Automatic annotation (TrEMBL):
Cofactor(s) named in the record: FMN
Source lineage: Bacteria, Pseudomonadati, Bacteroidota, Flavobacteriia, Flavobacteriales
Gene Ontology molecular functions: oxidoreductase activity
Keyword hit for Flavoprotein: yes
Enzyme Commission code: 1.-.-.-
Entry similarity comment: Belongs to the nitroreductase family.
Keywords: Flavoprotein, FMN, NAD, NADP, Oxidoreductase
Protein name (database record): NAD(P)H nitroreductase YdjA
Length: 169
């Protein structure tokens, strides 16, 4: 198979795979590092490389899950609060081998939409690399991400735009 066929195959196999389908097997450290590092090969105008990615595993991942559940509980309208959704947040985190927070650093050098587009291309690289390694993943953008800035230690010109869940399938 030539490179074009391999790439076409990976692109066509790329899917969002949710934590309920993940096995309990851990992702090898080298594979996870390769998935995250693939983001660095995305193009960005003026080479701003605006994506800021942080990998959460183990206890840090559990703390992120607790924070997300806490944010949901604090921000949900009491009439709309669903205990099942509250419990599902922690369950989704627990079933994931790793979670990567997807944040954008707005440099001021280019329009914000270009920084967001470059970050989305970085995430697509992670999707494709995960697919090549048969690692399930998906990009989630729950409303709780709007309340993570302090937890993540983001600067004023930075914003969390999603969570990238990963797990062996």
């Amino acid at each position: 198979m030539d490179n074009a066929e391999i790439l076409k195959n990976i692109i066509e196999k790329r899917r969002s795979i949710f934590p309920k389908s993940y096995s309990t097997e851990e992702i090898e450290e080298e594979v996870l590092a390769e998935i995250v590092n693939s983001a660095n090969f995305a193009p960005s105008h003026k080479r701003t490389k605006p994506w800021r990615l942080k990998v959460f595993r183990g206890e840090e991942k559990n703390q992120l899950g607790e924070k997300l559940a806490e944010i949901y509980k604090q921000t949900a309208n009491p009439e709309a609060f669903l205990e099942k959704k509250y419990l599902d947040i922690s369950d989704k985190v627990a079933k994931s081998a790793a979670i990567v927070t997807i944040c954008v650093n707005f440099s001021g050098l280019v329009p914000e939409w270009e920084e967001i587009a470059a970050t989305a291309m970085a995430v697509q690289n992670m999707y494709l690399t995960a697919t090549a390694h048969e690692v399930g993943c998906y990009w989630s953008t729950p409303g709780m991400i709007n309340h993570l800035n302090g937890f993540l230690g983001l600067d004023e010109n930075q914003k969390c735009i999603g969570l990238f869940y990963l797990g062996k399938i």
